[in-house]
């Protein structure tokens, strides 16, 4: 097949239609959480399946699993000697939260200043549309084989997370484009090469049978909340760095945020210092984080003048992408058990763990994608990482251990995914679609060249 030189122009011509399809998909409140209408999830599934058929995928099927929204699965056979590329995204979305805090209705997509606003616009429905666009650019006959996997319950979690590893024959590919990530900043093409692992830890302390008067007994009676806070304070040093032995932190050499940029993205209040020291990438991607995400203690509004007999905290622990999260979890548990604030023992237990991911980046797919991104954006791609996790990534990688895994997408640091006023820039949707289309032919060529050698 002769190389296509008109892919960017083809995608540009498709953009009005792609924008309309994105708006229609965003208008479907496909929330796969319990207590939300399941028919909306089915509507989104049906829309995606039909659009993929129209884009040239004749072999469309539904993967039905227990307790799981239907997964759209489709295939285009590879031309002789060509590689196969797996395309992943998801069509379900987070609940919108308080609609009063949205500037526009969350499921009434609105275009403003080159962006589409609406729940799921960035995470992850524009990535679905980008896949469709790349296929449309070739009239449904790309120069590579294609497997499309569009999940319907990624945000809530489902039985699909472990499905690819258990059914590898459905997911064998030479490269996987996991399009549920995004760019360090708008206009900077980014490959996400690592994901931190995650573990839950619970800490509780009981010191008294019941509350006792703080005036009569405070000062000697052991305060459970005070002991808990003192124990939690040992998790970090004076600068805010994690101080638990056994948690890995390495030098980050990829692209990074400036402190000013990070403060703006996170909405920090004026003059608020960052936690920790060193490059931000080390702190949020290549090192540990321990966050107190829940606390059981008397509420201020209803508090009595009493020594607290019981308190509990819920910790979210993030670990280096290449560290076993169970190992990191054990390190935190052992540290807190040793702490014994004021001589008071803490009861510490572990919860769920999720493995991180570190991609190999020196294969032909990465070479092809870097070139494709440079064509689409007009600037070189950078490497970044994510402090969050994509549970399916490891299962996909296990299903095709020789495949290169590339994580990318339409999101940028200011897209407000999972937050209020979520939006996707149409320029990023266009560039991802062009890069994916360019990647198909560049990867097919490099794959063929390697086969000849």
UniProtKB/TrEMBL annotation:
It comes from the Bacteria. It holds the Pfam family M20_dimer. The keyword Metal-binding applies. SUPFAM superfamilies: Zn-dependent exopeptidases. Its EC number is 3.5.1.18. The keyword Zinc-finger does not apply. Residues 196-339 form the Peptidase M20 dimerisation domain. Keywords: Hydrolase, Metal-binding, Protease. GO terms for biological process: proteolysis. InterPro entries: Cyt/Met_Dipeptidase, Peptidase_M20, Peptidase_M20_dimer. GO terms for molecular function: metal ion binding; peptidase activity; succinyl-diaminopimelate desuccinylase activity. Coiled coil: none annotated. This is Succinyl-diaminopimelate desuccinylase. It comes from Nocardia otitidiscaviarum. The gene is dapE_2.
């Amino acid at each position: 097949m002769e190389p296509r030189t008109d892919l960017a122009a083809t995608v540009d011509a498709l953009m009005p239609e792609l924008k309309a399809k994105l708006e229609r998909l965003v208008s479907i409140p496909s929330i796969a959480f319990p207590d939300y209408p399941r028919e909306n999830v089915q509507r989104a599934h049906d829309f995606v399946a039909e659009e993929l058929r129209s884009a040239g995928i004749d072999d469309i099927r539904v993967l039905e699993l227990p307790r799981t929204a239907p997964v759209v699965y489709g295939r285009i056979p590879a031309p002789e000697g060509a590689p196969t590329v797996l395309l992943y995204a998801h069509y379900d979305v987070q609940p919108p939260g308080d609609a009063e805090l949205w500037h526009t209705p969350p499921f009434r997509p609105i275009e403003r200043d080159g962006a589409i606003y609406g729940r799921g616009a960035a995470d992850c429905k524009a990535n679905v549309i980008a896949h469709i666009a790349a296929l449309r650019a070739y009239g449904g006959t790309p120069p590579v084989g294609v497997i499309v996997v569009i999940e319907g319950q990624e945000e809530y979690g489902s039985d699909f997370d472990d499905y690819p590893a258990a059914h590898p024959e459905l997911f064998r590919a030479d490269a996987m484009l996991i399009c549920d990530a995004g760019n360090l900043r708008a206009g900077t093409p980014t490959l996400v090469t690592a994901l931190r692992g995650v573990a839950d830890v619970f800490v509780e302390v009981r010191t008294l049978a019941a509350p006792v008067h703080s005036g009569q007994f405070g000062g000697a009676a052991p305060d459970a909340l005070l002991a808990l806070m003192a124990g939690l304070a040992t998790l970090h040093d004076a600068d805010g760095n994690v101080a638990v032995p056994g948690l890995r932190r390495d030098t980050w050499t990829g692209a990074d945020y400036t402190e000013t940029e990070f403060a703006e993205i996170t909405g920090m209040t004026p003059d608020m210092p960052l936690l920790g020291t060193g490059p931000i990438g080390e702190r949020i991607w290549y090192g540990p984080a321990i966050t107190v995400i829940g606390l059981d203690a008397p509420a201020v509004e209803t508090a009595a003048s009493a020594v607290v007999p019981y308190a509990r905290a819920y910790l979210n622990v993030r670990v280096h992408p290449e560290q076993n999260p169970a190992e990191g979890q054990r390190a935190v548990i052992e540290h807190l058990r040793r702490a014994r604030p004021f001589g008071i023992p803490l009861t510490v237990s572990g919860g769920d763990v999720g493995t991180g991911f570190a991609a190999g980046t020196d294969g032909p797919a990465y070479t092809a994608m870097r070139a494709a991104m440079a064509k689409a954006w007009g600037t070189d791609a950078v490497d970044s990482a994510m402090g969050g996790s994509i549970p399916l990534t490891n299962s996909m990688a296990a299903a095709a251990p020789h495949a290169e895994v590339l994580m990318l997408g339409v999101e940028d640091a200011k897209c407000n995914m999972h937050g209020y006023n979520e939006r996707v820039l149409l320029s990023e949707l266009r560039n991802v679609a062009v890069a994916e289309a360019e990647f198909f032919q560049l990867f097919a060529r490099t794959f063929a060249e390697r086969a000849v050698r």
